[in-house]
Each structure stands twice: as structure tokens, then as C-alpha cells.
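Before relying on records like the one below, remember that each one covers exactly one chain. Contacts with other chains, cofactors or solvent are not represented anywhere in the record.
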Amino acid sequence: MSVFELRHYQLYPHNREFLHERFAQHTSPIFDRLGFEAVAFFEVDTGPGEGDLVYLMKWESVEARAIGWRTFGADQEWARVRAATNERHGPLVARTNSTLLRPTGYSRMA
């Protein structure tokens, strides 16, 4: 059974546009190249974390997730892009939170 990962990025308000730009132009294409399944991306509209980025990843297993993030962390293109955007704009993400979710038997995502 697949595992879903809900990732929440608390953003610095003055850098939000740059984080969205990095995801659209670089991070998402790297995810695609590495075979990651990004289900959906959201911007928190109201409530706690308003303006933050939240996204849902689908993994075949907890082990596949661990391997995937290790691979992403070691990716040369990601390292170059992250360093360049952080140098240009400063840190884009204040804090991250990741939650692993397993669909219930009655979920449409099961």
C-alpha cells in the first residue's frame, strides 16, 4: 500500500514568490526527473500558516521515501539551484514539517 507524505513549508513572507518560482522552475522538474509523484501543491489560504506552501507526495513505501529524499539531497542540480537562490534571496523556508499518512480502507486514495 502506498504512503503519502504531507509536507508543510513555513515561508518567510518577503521570499514567498521566490520559493514558488523555485518550485515551478526547478524543484518540480527535478522531482519529475527523479520519478517522484507529487500529487498536489497548495498555498494555505486561511488559518494557521496562511501563505505557507503545503504539498502531498505519494510513495510506494516508507523505504522508497527514504531513498527518494536521499537521492534528492545528493542531486547536483538541486544543490546548485538551492545554493544560487539562497545566495540571491536568503533562506526561503523558515521551517518544514513532514507527516506520513496511510490511506484508510474507505479512502478514495487507497
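Residues 3-101 form a domain with the Alpha-Beta Plaits fold (CATH 3.30.70.100).
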